[in-house]
């Protein structure tokens, strides 16, 4: 299912913030600045949290479909491989997700490098996704209250919108790889 504009909690939060800021009188500059500071951090955390949820759901959907719903395997993967492990799946400071792709094997990593190169905007989307995750980590580990977030709300929201392409395409890309593997297409390409 594709997510559309203004459908996620992040879009809803963004719209609510714009409504609040519009209500603040221009003479209340301190109040406006405080609201904007709090909102930027909340928007960043919301975007990162939303992406974490979507990626974890995609991974569990792949596990479920690949094991024909075997609850033992699903629970094992959820509890041992994924629970509290999300932030270790990515190299947040990197400009690409090759380390993440490599967790699924060299074949998938190679497949994804090709797909990222073919799909317009995907490389930029991955960079935006990793940047959001990296900034989220800095925010929560470097004293949230005093952390200086360099991006304004508009820039954070634009990064979120860019990053969605990768997050929303990941499951379909993984399924595409599995289908190619099942048909022997990927194996023939590697020969």
Textual characterization of the structure:
α2 crosses α3. This protein has one domain. The relative contact order is 0.13. It has 191 residues and is mostly helical. The chain is elongated, with a radius of gyration of 19 Å.
Q: What does the overall shape look like?
A: elongated
- Helical amount: over 70%
Tally of distinct domains = 1
Which strand-content bin applies to the residues?
under 5%
Total beta strands: 0
What does the oligomeric state look like here? single chain
Mean pLDDT level: 89
Put simply, the count of helices is 8
Helix-strand sequence = HHHHHHHH
End-to-end distance: 35 Å
Uncertain parts: 1-5, 187-191
Report the radius of gyration as a whole number of Å: 19 Å
**What can be said about the biggest beta sheet?**
none
Structural class: mainly alpha
Features:
single chain, 191 residues, mainly alpha, 8 helices, 73% helix, elongated
